[in-house]
Amino acid sequence: MAKFVMLTTLTDEGRKTITENPGRIKEVNKEAEAMGAKILAQYAVLGPYDFINIIEAPSNEVISKVAVTLGARGTLQTMTLAAMDIDAFVGSIKKQK
Fold this sequence. Notes:
97 residues; alpha+beta; Alpha-Beta Plaits; 4 helices; 32% strand
């Protein structure tokens, strides 16, 4: 399965939601998994993003559905990046020589 990095920024409504119900974060993870993605790791971070998620999904369509569905709620905004295992990356470069 493909891996993705999802950078998430909470909206004002999202900050209110998790302040009132911090467990909501893990509930959202379960919803993403119900759409076919798997949360491999999740970190709360400081800076321009509030969370970094490492996600595994079978296709671009699945990860797109997760991002759009979660973003449509108005509690967060996402930026999703395709990620490649470093060994696979190095191998792809070696093949070009």
